[in-house]
Amino acid sequence: MKIILSTILIVFFSFGVFANESEHKEVNTNEKYNPVPPIMEHIMDAHTWHLWGAGHDAVAIPLPVILWTEKGLVTFMGDEFHHDTEGHHIVTKNGLNLVNYEEKIYQLAEGAEHLEFDKDGVVANIRPIDISITKNVAAMIISLIILCLVFFAAAKSYRGGVKAPKGIASFMEPLILFIQNDIALANIGEKHYKRFLPFLLTVFFFIWFNNMLGLIPIFPGSANVSGNIAFTLALSFITLLLTNLNGNANYWKHIFWMPGAPIPIKIFLIPIELIGLIAKPFALMIRLFANITAGHIVVLSLVSLVFIFKTVYMSAVSVPFTLFISVLELLVALLQAYVFTMLSALFIGSAVAEAH
Amino acid sequence: MVGSIAAIGAGLAAIGAGIGIGMIGGHAMDAIARQPEATSKIQTNMLIAAALVEGVALFGVVVGLMGL
What we know:
Chain A contains 9 helices and 8 strands.
């Protein structure tokens, strides 16, 4: 065992010998390396799934681009842009000229060759409605497949009757029981918790699996799904809907006419509670987005240190730090899924709570 | 002068997070010292409170990122 581990370590350390700049690029060693564009590229969504390489010899998995334009549905594969995100390469479909500028697809005006920028440097062209399968959507589908594989396997093992779980079910059962007892039952109460348990379980495992997959640096991980504010917006919007559509009279009374307070305070509390209606799911959204994105930015910045100092020996400092932060990110992945689920359960519980 | 005010704002938010989570951790240590049998309960609640405080601090970081 020790011999195997030492061999693996020696093999990994010897990769440093092969690290060098690619021969056909002009390297200006006096130019400062700007780490912000590559970091932003890793965090944001994209129309192709970039695997390795840079510029023209990048290797990427092409993903379908689906646009609803004024001329109907336009579909093509993302690699038709040939890895260009500066708005130069024009793809012509259905008589429309489309360019990809910073991973947003814009429609060029008739006969125009370049994008139009207004006085603030913001792109002035129109964007067709973009419903493509981007990197984040593809990553969500992958985590969906993993979720289905894990949970259908776990469910199947219970088919012969309820007994002590074996295999994957034995790992999932304590987690599911934890969510059922300590999150759902404790916050929502005996009467209503079963209705909301599927939502809470789904939210917990979906967020957790997406967080974990985002920490893996290569396909099928490497897509920053839970750090995408649209993803967290959708989840917290569902929590908002569930809370307010299931609110009983007691819940609305607490918002509009807080019992137990003097009348001037009751009136003063109305706008505050109304803001709180929106602010609480908003906080859910920002909390998950910022935690995951900040974690990814920290890891990417630590790796960028090697490029900023332009020496491979910086990796002796950078890699242990990155390892430590990645372990912390594993904890954050689980913790943020738990906090999201617990706060959703708390809000739903306050919506269905009986007066006491 | 290099840098931006947004970075200073994000740094201030980090101070807030550091103070808040440090206090939570410190009180949790005191509680564990008083009653070691309750360690796991205290630990769970400490992590939840730390995640909530961190959420607020990350509001500040997000606004800082927007200002970059």
